[in-house]
Design goal:
With 141 residues, the protein is α+β, with helices and mostly antiparallel strands. Helix content is 30%, strand content 40%. It contains 3 helices and 9 strands, in the order βαβββαβββαββ. Strands 3, 4, 6, 8 and 9 form a 5-stranded antiparallel sheet that branches. A hairpin with a 4-residue loop joins strand 8 and strand 9. The model has no long low-confidence stretch (mean pLDDT 95).
Length: 141
């Protein structure tokens, strides 16, 4: 189980990646894997102008921590972190970041993939896409 500083967090503002990566530093780590999810300008054949993310904060933080705890237990990794944005985001903005350290690359890659997949599937964060035609639509995986 996670103790101390949260591994999962929501951020209403843009955040820096370097401090997150630095927090994962460990002399035992031979591998670091990261995923950056960014806002793209299209989805399902439609032009997208931007996104708005909303979260059920208390549940999102609890479930996000649970996902990271599971990754640490399930894979041979040293640590993991995830930050997900909330609020309005423009095309190209960083929406979600996952970082994982491990002794070996296979575990780091597998755990990183697990974390982003589980966060998208289980953590109560919803996005509303703003389309070039002027309409909007709520989306959730």
């Amino acid at each position: 189980m996670s103790t101390g500083m949260p591994r999962f967090s929501l951020s209403p503002e843009a955040f820096e990646i370097a401090p997150l990566r630095d927090a994962l530093g460990d002399a035992r780590a031979g591998a670091f894997a990261a995923f950056e999810g960014r806002v793209r300008n299209h989805n399902d054949g439609r032009s997208v102008d931007g996104l708005h993310y909303e979260a059920y904060v208390a549940l999102a933080e609890t479930e996000g921590e649970r996902v990271l705890d599971e990754a640490i237990e399930r894979f041979d990794i040293l640590d993991a972190r995830c930050v997900h944005r909330t609020g309005d985001l423009a095309i190209g903005d960083l929406a979600v970041w996952v970082g994982v350290t491990a002794a070996h690359r296979d575990a780091a890659f597998a755990a990183c993939r697990y974390v982003i997949d589980e966060v998208k599937a289980r953590v109560p964060i919803w996005k509303r896409e703003r389309y070039a035609e002027g309409d909007e639509d709520w989306r959730h995986p």
